[in-house]
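stage 2 :: seqdesign
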């Protein structure tokens, strides 16, 4: 599957769990959660230390997500990502987005050959329409340099 098809398929999921929301309001996971929510995407926050986030019930980990959730966005340090990915796949999650900076070689090796839809090392904010000014400019530069997925 082409990268652009994988990205579009992920963003078409009716529910997206966001792993990496935080008490720290300046964290990127919080920005992603709130931005996707404003765009009309049904998002579910995931953080083991919170019971609610932004007025929504917060789930402690991917294992506790409702069965109808089939997409997980991960914005965690690389050393935590592999365990999250393993749990998501064991739960039957079919769509993963691992935000830039959330992966390492171990995660990439684990994902090779898995029969799931996943995107790694890309910023979701460049693809979730409508794209805002900063990320729109970043997308423009990505297209200009040939780094935008086809």
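stage 2 :: out
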């Amino acid at each position: 599957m082409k990268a652009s098809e994988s990205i579009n398929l992920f963003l078409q999921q009716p529910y997206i769990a966001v792993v990496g929301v935080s008490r720290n309001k300046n964290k990127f996971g919080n920005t992603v959660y709130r931005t996707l929510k404003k765009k009309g995407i049904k998002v579910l926050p995931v953080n083991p230390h919170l019971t609610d986030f932004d007025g929504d019930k917060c789930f402690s980990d991917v294992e506790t997500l409702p069965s109808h959730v089939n997409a997980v966005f991960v914005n965690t340090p690389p050393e935590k990502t592999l365990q999250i990915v393993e749990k998501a796949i064991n739960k039957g999650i079919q769509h993963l987005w691992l935000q830039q900076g959330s992966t390492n070689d171990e995660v990439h090796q684990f994902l090779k050959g898995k029969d799931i839809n996943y995107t790694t090392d890309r910023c979701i904010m460049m693809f979730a329409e409508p794209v805002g000014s900063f990320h729109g400019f970043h997308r423009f530069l990505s297209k200009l340099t040939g780094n935008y997925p086809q």
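stage 3 :: structure notes
- The radius of gyration is 15 Å.
- The mean pLDDT is 94.
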